[in-house]
User: Fold this.
Amino acid sequence: MTKTLNLTLKVWRQNGPDSMGRLETYNAGDISTDMSFLEMIDVINEQLTIEGKEPIAFDHDCREGICGMCGTVVNGRPHGPEKGTTLCQLHMRHFSDGDTIVIEPWRSRAFKIIKDLVVDRGALDKIIQAGGYVSVNTGGAPDANAIPISQDTAEKAMDAAACIGCGACVAACPNASAMLFTSAKISQLALLPQGRPEAATRAIAMVRAMDELGFGNCTNERECEAECPKEISIVNIARMNREFFKAAFFSEVK
Amino acid sequence: MRLDAKIPAGPVAEKWDLHRFGLKLVNPANKRKYEIIVVGTGLAGGSASASLAELGYNVKTFCIQDSPRRAHSIAAQGGINASKNYQNDGDSDWRLFYDTVKGGDFRAREANVYRLAQLSGNIIDQCVAQGVPFAREYGGQLANRSFGGAQVSRTFYARGQTGQQLLLGAYSALSRQIAAGKVKMYPRREMLDVVVIDGQAGGIVARNLVTGEIEKYSADAVVLATGGYANVFFLSTNAMASNVTATYRAYKRGAFFANPCFTQIHPTCIPVHGTYQSKLTLMSESLRNDGRVWVPKKPGDKRSPSQIPESERDYYLENKYPSFGNLVPRDVASRNAKEQCDLGKGVGETGLAVYLDFADAINRDGRDVITKKYGNLFQMYEKITAENPYETPMMIYPAVHYTMGGLWVDYNLMSTIDGLFVLGEANFSDHGANRLGASALMQGLADGYFIIPYTIGGYLAANTKKQVSTDHPAFKESADRIESGVKRLLSIKGKRTADDFHRQLGNIMWEYCGMSRNDEDLIKARKLIRDLRGEFWENVLVPGSDKDFNQSLEKAGRVADFLEFGELMVIDALARRESCGGHFNEGYQTEENEARRDDENFCHVSAWEYKGEGKDPELNKEQLAFENVKLTQRSYK
Amino acid sequence: MNWLTKTFTSSIGKKLLMAVTGLSFCAFLTAHLIGNLTLYAGRDAFNSYAEHLHSLGPLITVAETGLLFFGIIHVVTGLFLFFQNIAARPARYEVNKNAGGRTIGSVTMPYTGLILIAFITLHLINFHFIDKSGSTIFQIVQDAFTKPAYIVIYVLAVITAAFHVSHGFWSAFQTLGVNHPKYMPFIRTAGIAFSLIIGLGFGFIPIFISITT
Assistant:
């Protein structure tokens, strides 16, 4: 049943990458339980605008949990308290009347704050640019059925490929590490025969890029898989480690 | 102006081969001297950027999001068609071609559609080679499913995330070219103008969405792949940032806008639940394979579905279309849902929904089978609505989903501005008046991977290379105009937000230019849009400053364009005095309330030419010739 | 940098160092515990175990040097990880909440580690670098555990070690890439069991000695 809630929001406001930020308090009255979290912010922003104040900057796009654009830390939890849910799919019915909600941006040295809740996740693109692809030009690909791939392998590759690149794993990791993100791509391509020829160079290049971009180290805290909206498993991190060791110690790649 | 579609001569199956042979080539060593701008990084823009860079061109790629991986192609669920005939069920290029032309209600260009069918197989090969994890059979071969009423299984899929996987494939190819230095990537940029120098596209002007700077970029050719305009309806299944600005501004610079009234309404979306709602969510069409659509027989019946006995339910699709039943095409299913709700038989709190009931399917096949088929969709439904579709029927309602209209392009995908190419949903497309399921992904990738790399070369080779520079006065003129537009928006300081105007525009469009239209409503809509636009420029409130990250300003600019574009849609809808596909004018229907085409007078593409501020656009027609497909009346009885 | 240093200074390389050295400490702890269990059999059994051990001569020196070397790697790499990980998030969250991945063992890893270094130093001073002429090793142990403070310190230290191992054990396997749907549940259980055995096995020794003395 639709109800309405009165909430207190504490939202991180920061004018730019180098400005000081602070939590500001807003009252959110008459919030319908059918609203999504982002629609709740829309309502607050509408109010702020009418009051002559600057609305809260936040990233969002598809609002159906697939583009990976949205994401803030809600009461200490990236994408909020629901498992396997992006912020845009989190509905206000999961909150209670009178709740105080603290909303903060992803925090990592590798993600500079652009404004308020908006961060620059370009580092994730750089990791992919280091090797998250199969080097095949357009045209000249063999028939799609030329290489059989077992259903099990295809499914495992798909499990890893489901990553939406939102950065929640980095935000959730106590060390701000990007291992789950990196491992998802390395895993997907390591599992598929199309990715094997470059597996060694890819593993080394992507891990090095990840390290250079200022992410922390993995200490197997498992917060990433617990918070991942696509529930990507740390099995992929183990697979990346294997790929990395194979590449570092047994391949000719330096 | 006479539109020349440059359709090559010869039998339809040989046109593309002959045409490619006829195109001039750019010497490999010379390719690196050319700069190409690609705007948009969805399936079309991403694949085009990568493929052009692989050929050796220097590419500058722009996207509105923070990363090229987030374009709205990512949200496509169902799959991608290809005439591989892996299932041995009689598929062929000819059959895919025929289905697409017929499904589009005979308002697409035959030659383009045949080429699309021809290239469909290459797309699957390319994507598999990139590591796209398509679903597989136990033996390791690719799996297919039937989709969108097709009688063959030709749809390739990656769970319910096919668009995502294909886009990430294109994104990975693009990333490789970025790393190689062949593509310079500009994220968080919004294209605000095409710069035309001596009749040729010479670059773009864009706003840096982080700093607010107005930036100029020159090139030898410009490729737009900026998607559709469904957000003119405010509520649609499109992403929040999807907008018409890039194509509309190109239209204002001389590119013709074709068939803007062809919009697709998808029948199975989660209904609207409140005025604050920002976005609609699509539920895969596959649900109609097992779900039965019904409403109460008695208007205004507010009992819960379980209390309505079988005898008081109206399974209107099954009754009306005995042979296709719940599986009628999208436009028919949508229109009928609206009809029932207009009769007061709609369900739910708003009365704008119909039931999609799985009780019979669960009784027949067991809950496990249904879970296996639709488990993730049921879960998504429950997440959004907090209702369990295993126990209570789903509620669905149609929503705007895709736009078949777009910038007019010739066979080379070039618009009426020389050197301005338009790909994917942004062009007026190969889908005619109605798009079939699983064919948008196919078109985006065919355009980007396999068509533009050839045709852009043909254009560049046929023209003498010019020295383009952002110092040209045309760039300054454009940048100044944009700057003053931005300043104007900020200076109004009215009382209503851009979002508020957008919502009102959406209501007008949905009410009067939505699922079914009539002349009276359309005329009314045109006036309402004009009035709203007038109010917008006097009463919009845009906070913040221009040289800053300012999402309200971005939004205001897009709404301003929607407010002009909405009128163009209405004008087009008024001019097309027939019903076809996504355009249903109540004045033109058969006795059985089906769309009645007028092939004698309207077998053409309507391409609108901008004539200046405050002036009506001029209609140019491209006659469509059907040499291979016989025009018939669609019937699903 | 050559490939080897690049490998070991990478994030996964550092994890590898932690995992390999950590697992060898687990092996050492197992051997140490088995040896120490002779304490429960009384003075003679323990003294003769010590004698046998010392009769191994140079092998012991090699093992000790190895342990020291591994210890240095483990501690230095651990400190690097600790400080790098702090630096990776310069601005901290105002609200911190756990999604259910972390355990007490994993959260406290660096701190239990530092406590263990202090304890190991004390432990070596107590029993290794002590003047052993004129008394048997059993005697020394017995003397030490007559002091209540020592009992408390040792029991607490052993509990600390148990927590450290509760995360370290399975974590080492995960790092080495040994994460298999069939075996991982077993490894995780084994990790908890191992930490309990370490905790109880070592923890009861001071209590047992003080009671029986």
User: Anything to note?
Assistant: Chain B has a mean pLDDT of 95. The longest strand of chain B covers residues 394-403. The domain at 265-401 of chain B is CATH 3.90.700.10 (Flavocytochrome C3; Chain A, domain 1). Chain B is about 35% helix and 15% strand.
